[in-house]
Every structure is written in C-alpha cells, then in structure tokens.
Amino acid sequence: MAAGDRRFILHFDWTLFILVLALAGIGLVSVISASYGGHKLLNPLVIRQLVWIAAGTAALLIAVFVDYRAMQTYAYPFYVLVVGLLIAVMIAGHATGGSRRWINLGAFHLEPSELAKLAVVLVMVRYLREEPPKGGWGLQHLIVPFVLLGIPAALVLKQPDLGTGLVLVLITITLVFVAGLNWRTMLVLAIAGMLAAPLSWHYLKPYQRQRLVSFINPQADPLGSGYHIIQSEIAIGAGGPTGKGFLNGTQARLNFLPEQSTDFIFAVFAEEFGLAGAMLLLGLYASVIARGAYIARHARDRFGALLAVGLTAIVFWQVAVNIGMATGMLPVVGITLPLVSYGGSSLIAMMAAMGILISINTRRYLF
Amino acid sequence: MAKFHIPRSNNRPVPLLEPRIVTLTVMMFAVLGLLSVRLYNLQVLHHKDNVEMADRNRIRLQRVPAPRGLVFDRNHRPLVDTKPSFDAQIVPEDSDNLSLTIERLARYTGADQIADKISDADEAGRPPYEPITVAERLGWQQVVALEAHQLDLPGVSLQITPARHYLYGQLAAHLLGYVGEVNVSDLKSHADYHMGDEIGKFGLERVWESFLRGDAGGQEIEVDAVGRRLRVLKEIPDTPGQSIVMTIDLNLQQAAEQAMQGKNGAFVALDPRNGDVLAMVSHPAFDPDIFGGGVKASAWKELMTDPNHPLQNRVIQGIYPPGSTFKIVDSIAGLQEGTLKPDTAYNCPGGMWFGGREYHCWRKQGHGTVELHDAIVRSCDVYFYNVGEKLGVDRIAKWSNQMGLGLKSGIDLDHENPGTIPSSAWKQKRFHERWYPAETLSVAIGQGYVATTPLQMAQVAAQVANGGIRYKPQFVKYVEGLDGNIAKSYPPVIENRIKIDPDALQDVKDAMADVVNGAGGTAHKAHLDNVVVCGKTGTAQVVGDKGGGDGEDEEEKNTPDQYKDHAWFIAFAPKDQPTIAAACIIEHGGHGGSASAPVIHDVFQRYFQLNPPPTAPAIARVLDNN
C-alpha cells in the first residue's frame, strides 16, 4: 500500500465524495426544517444528525482504505452477524410506533435492518462472482440467492418493516439480472410474481392493507392512513416551482406531515425548495447512480463490478420507493431517503456503502 | 493478492456484465424521469390547487371519541355510565412566563409533572398552539380555584370530556372490568385506534369493546398561520357505542358484596335453568374508576404489589382444592357407574388403613356405619375413601370432566383457569410417574392434585339442580342498539348434558337438603324459613393432613389466620325446580359451614325476597347443636 499512497490520493473519487456530502448537506437542511419549532435551529435532533454525518464520513473514509476484495472473505461472517442482530431485535428489540426495529445500545439505537441491505448485497455478490454457465444463470442457480435473501427478508418483514423487506427483494432482483440471469428464467419469475401478488395480501397486517387501500383511494379514509399520502402531496405541490423558502413550509411547521424527519423528509424539502430544489436533489442522485454504473463498468474484477451495481441499487431503489411514496405514486411503506433522512443507522450504513464504492473505483488504478 | 478471486483477463475484465449494466442504468434513469414528471405535475400543473389545500390545511381535524355505551343490570338499572370530567389544558405558547404559570397551576390543581407532560408532548411532535392536557378529573374545588384565578393563568383552559364512571365503585369490579388509554400493543392490534383513545382493558369492558366503543366523530377547527385555534368550523357527528344489558341483578349483587364484606374469597350465583350469572364477587376488589384518565403510578403500584391480589378474579382465576364439596361429584360418578348405590354402607371408625398408612376422617371418633345419605349429610371422609377406591381415579376424572371440572367454563372473560383434575394419564404426562391407588383417596375428598375454580363448583351445584345440564355461564343478556332494540342476544348455550338417573339424583338432592336442614347437617347456617336450600360444605386444606372436615372442632379456634383452611359452600334452591345455584369460598375462613354458608344464606334470602317462591311452606328448623 505504501508505494501506492500517492496514487491513492490522486485517484480518490472526489466526484462521488462531494456528491455524498452534498446530499448529506441537503439532509441536514431538511432535518432543520422538519424539526424547527420557531425558536432555535440547533435542536437536539439537528445536533444528532450532525454527529452522525461526521461519524458517517469517518465510516466512508475507513471503507475507502479497506481493500474491497477482502470483503469476499468476510461477506458470509458479516451476513451471519447481521442475521444474528435481526434475531436479537425480535427478542430484545426496542419498539416504537407498533414495530420492533431497534436495539438499544444506550446512546445509540442500532437499526440492524439498515445493515441488512449491505449484508445482502455483499453475500449475493460473493455468490454471483462466478462466471455464469453458457446461456446464463437458470432457475436452479437461484436456490442459494433465494435462501440468502429469504432469511433476512423474513426477519425484517416480521418487525414489521415492509419497506426494507421490499428493498432487499429489489436489490436481489437487480443483482441477479446484472449477473446474467437468462431471459427465460426472468419471464418465469415475472409470471410467478404476478400470480403471487394477490396471495401476499393475506399476509399483510391490517394497517399495511389499509395503506394499500388508501393508496388506491386516499379519500377513502382521509383522517386515517390516506392522510399521509394526501398531506405529503399537498406539501410537495404547494412548494411550486421555486418553493416557499427555507423554514417557511407550513405543512411541516404545523405538523401535517407524518414522520417528517425520516420517511417523509422529501416532502419537507420539496415544500420549501420547490421543483428547483427537487430537481437538484434528483440530479444529485442521478449523478451518484451514473457514477456507480461507471465504477461498475470499469471495475477490475467481477466481484467489484457486481458490488458496485449492488451498492448503487440500494441508493436507487430507496430513492425510487421513497419519492414514489411521497408523491403518491406508490403505497406508503416506511423507507428512508438515502443520505438525507434523519437517523444514525441509515446514514452511517449508507456513507460506508459509498466508501466501498469509492474504494472499488480507486483500486482499479492500483492493481 | 493471490488469495483473491481475480480473473486474469486484460483491461476490460467485465465485458460480460457491461450490456446489462447499461440496460439497468437506462431503466434507473427512466424511473427518475418518471418521478420528475410526477413532480412537475404536482408542483407546476397542480401548484395552485395544492396551495389552496395547504391553506385549507389551516383547518385542523380533531377526533372526538364517541361516548362509550352504558352497562345495565338485568332490570335495566345503570351500573356504568359516563360523566363529564373537568380537565385542565395548557397552551404553552400563550403563556409569557411558562414556569410561573406551571407553578401556579400545580398549586391550584395539585397536579404534578406538568412540565414533564409539556416536554413529552413537544418531543412527540406537538404542533404549536396545540393544547396539552396536564391534569385530569379535577374535583369541584380545583375547578373553582382555576376559574377564580383565570387571569393569573394565561394559556390555561378547562376542557370537559366524558369519562367512564362506575356508579357503584367496587361493585362487580372484576366482571365489569375497566378502561384505560391505549398502549403500543393495543395500537398494533387495532388499526382504527389512535394515541390517547380509551380502550377496554379488562372484564366486560374489554370483551365487549367493539360494541361499547362506537365510532369517533370529529371537529374541524380553524387555526391561524402559526397554528393558534380560532374557531370550530364543523362538527362531524359521532356514533355512540351500544349498551350492554347484563344478567346480574343489582340488588342481588349488592347483597353478595355486603355478605362478602371484609373477607377474601369469591362468590358466584348462576341461574341453573340457563347459565345466567346472577351475581359474581371476588374480594378484595379494586375501584375501576382509578384507571380512567391516566391511572396514578402510585395507585397502580399499590394494586400490583398488594399481597391479596385485588386484580385477580378469584371466581375464574382462583383455583382451590374443592374439599368435601367434591363428594357430590364422587356420588354422581359412583351412582352413574353403578359402583355406588344409595344403600351402600361403609363403616367409619374414624379412619381407614390403606397401603400401610392411616387415612383419617375429620371426625376422630368416627361416624359408625353410614349409607350414602348420611355420608353426604355428615360429610364422612371414610365413606368417600371407599367410594373413590371403588371408582378409581380415571372414572372420577371422567365424571369430573363431564361436569365441567378441569375445563374452562367458556365464560367470556380473560385468563380463566381450567383448574386440575388428575388422572393416571395426567400424572404420567405431568410427572412421568404412575398413579398410586392411595392418591385416589385424597382425590375422593377433593384434596391432593384436585383444583377447581368457584365458578366450576357453582356449575356442579347447578347441574345437580337442573338434572345434569351444563350451560356456558353468561353474564350479558343482550346488546342494546341505539334505537333501544336488542341488537344481539345471547341465548343459553348447552356445553354438555349428562343423563343422571332421576331416583339417584333425588337421593343426592335429599342429602344436600339435609346438609342444610337435617339433623347432623354441616350447614345449618344456610337455612331459610320459606325455601328448601340444598348445599354441601367443604374445607380446602391450606397446610397439614388432617382429613377434609366440615364440622367445627376445638383445634380450629387456635389456628393463626394464614394457616386456617379455605371454607367452601355450594348450594342451590329451591329444592324442587331450583332457580338459583351458587358457590362461595372464603379464604382462610375455616369451615364451610361456619364461614361460607352464611354468605349464601344472605344472598339466597335476598334472592327469594326479590323473586318470591311460588309456595312458601314453613320449613322446620333443626336445632343447631353446634
């Protein structure tokens, strides 16, 4: 490594690093808006978010210095650890708002489902790093990925955390697709998925069903679950082309928005900064995705390429589901907006993921 | 580096992946494009509509819970209603010196933790100018004090809300139950409840929650740009909850509560013709009113740590050895199986040797040679050791189960304990041990492993009374709709029916009548002048092994209270065409005849005042020689 130090700094991916910091900055601004009570800007929520951005930056830098290829060795142990944490949540987790998602570590509430996304990506990529047979991966090759996805997904859904469960499924599909699943298998899976959808209704909790009903017809229960969608759409729409200005959003200020510093933070931001701000935010995400795809295409090994795809997929799917939900295009499932939403576990895990991405990019010059 | 998996190809190591990565990127950008279109739609095309709606959002919707349904006794006299509760609210933003206001408010209302409640609400995301309730259920003097000092208390207002009120305090507390604020687990299982709502937590309030609750209404309240409340724009009407008409009789329940006053134990009376619960008492009880409007931590702790367990409903949760009351079950089992005839005679010399050990009768000097009738009347242990030995434990268990012992009665209350009826299979499963015949002797006199609830023993009395029909005990007669009509009724449910030979049954009834009215009977204290009461006493041993006795003896008077036995009495009346059956247990009461029989006497006396028997023959009272 010593010989490569100068090259290392030279080839550090400043583009991605700055994109990440910009998104975290937008997050901080939005958390201030969401938590502003009319008195002071630096309330405990904002200070905690600042601390987590700092911790996340450290995690990012550590990830950059780690040789990502070593992760092939640690993928399975890490996966086992995360599954263990998810089981611990079931047993001794800390419950808020009807679901059990956190482990209380005193100063910090760890949310293992945020780590589960990283663990699933690592372990999938570790499995899929082999070249596919002629004609691509078939159905019989999907048994292992299915089991690797199934265990954490089932645990996360049990919490219940529909959002993270959905993201785990989506990133797995993405990885299997890129790794070379043959088209016939894809068709079979698509048909099976369509047939299974009505069945899964049976397994949803009453409030989850209500959200789906409200999604189709928000006015059916404007005081209950349809409320979230309606209020979020109003906030975004009222922002208009240029927004109401920093700290001038009434929807958030008067607490019409639910979960406004986490799941619905996009609505807070879009109300105050309008279409212009929203486009800037989407542009930043698009740049991260483009950069991730670039890194994937230029990675030096199949493992690195697929890892880059997986990490980019986490960002993409969370953005798509979160903003889709906030704009009323998707039903409400609790999911964070990557790098922007309030919350330590999600922020630190996401910045570490970006660090790994930078590490893959940096190392293509090193060996 | 060799340990890593690196394909040895040249500068484009992943050509195979490239097309799909490109496809994926294009799809991702397409989705982001779709989101942008949606944003343009919301923020530009529908901007005006949304601004209008955001302005209209100055209208805040406040849910107003529907008034909860009432609860009546069988004669439609109210037992539970709602009364206005005066609560103090504060809008912190309206007070320029908040800490001074809080200090004064605390002084006038005696409420503590006002500042904590405000900061809790703020942390939970209270919108500005949204009032916080800081003191509930204020007394008249506190209300007057607040009114008088209104000028010193900027931001403080009084709010009147309906609060659950139990008209007779502790009366039937375990049956009625109580309500409380929803907690996290309630919210999880009830999607339509909101934080702060009231929900039935225990007893009837919990089980009939869906009828009692009704549908919440709401108020559209206009707020200004900063959130200050301006006025109520619109009221959305609520649908009040439906009322419940119970099977219990207020007068009878009061008589039972009175009779149980100062005692720990349980009493339950059933209508043997349909399983209606006429009265149910578990003592010590609690005041269900303290749970409404935020139970005080100290009061809650007191209830939880009270060694007498006031929250436990002893009628269905308390399990006790039935003692000699179980001899009724032995008799029916023996008569049904043919191992016992009314004229079967055994000699009681005061004890019985079995398996190298002597099993005592409670009467040391013995009962001499007795037949079934006298054995029941005088509660001879040795007689029933013999009856039990002939039957064997498994046939005793079979008939006990037939009569509902060892099974949940199915009453619509939570946490019912099925009790225990041992059998050889049960012992094998529980202790991996075979059944020893000597253990059957203890079972025969209702000791050993046998454990029953007072409700089950009342059902035994009811089955003797009605000839072997076991009804599900029910305490709700019907649900009354808002129009005053019956919305849902609860007809009698027959759980089991055993065919008892009428002559054999008559023998048992005759004996039970003489327990109360005959010479040598153990329960003369339950005697009524105008009705023939039938009963059976029992003593549930707390310590030691002295045989299950029901007569009074000298030893009794010197035993400290906590070692005294539990006193049982089960009864029904009138002897012909019975209309009431009951069971009573007094914990550490000593003997059934002296402690429990008087309770049943008082309740039955009241019952027959309220429901006079068709004919009133004078019943000779046998002189008590005790």
Description:
The complex is a heterodimer of chains A (367) and B (626). With 367 residues, chain A is an all-alpha fold. Chain A has one domain (2-363). Chain A is built from 14 helices and 3 strands. Chain A has helices at residues 5-10, 14-35, 44-65, 71-92, 112-128, 143-158, 162-178, 183-200, 206-216, 226-239, 250-253, 265-298, 302-326, 344-363; strands at residues 94-96, 99-104, 109-110. In chain A, strand 1 and strand 2 form a beta hairpin. With 626 residues, chain B is α+β, with helices and mostly antiparallel strands. Chain B has 2 domains: 62-215, Penicillin-binding protein 2a (Domain 2); 250-610, Beta-lactamase, CATH 3.40.710. Helix content of chain B is 35%, strand content 21%. Chain B contains 23 helices and 23 strands. In chain B, the strands form 7 sheets. In chain B, strands 2, 3, 4, 5, 10, 18 and 19 form a 7-stranded mixed beta sheet that branches. Chain B has a 5-stranded antiparallel beta sheet with strand order 12-11-23-22-21, with helices on both faces. Chain B has a 3-stranded antiparallel beta sheet with strand order 1-8-9, with no helix packed on it. Chain B is elongated and about 100 Å long. In chain B, 43% of the residues are buried. At the A-B interface, helix 7, helix 9, helix 10, helix 11 and helix 12 of A face helix 1, helix 2, strand 1 and helix 7 of B.
List the defining traits of the structure above.
heterodimer, A: about 375 residues, mainly alpha, three-stranded antiparallel beta sheet, B: about 625 residues, alpha+beta, Penicillin-binding protein 2a (Domain 2), Beta-lactamase, 2 domains, seven-stranded mixed beta sheet, five-stranded antiparallel beta sheet, 23 helices, 23 strands, about 35% helix, about 20% strand, elongated, disordered N terminus
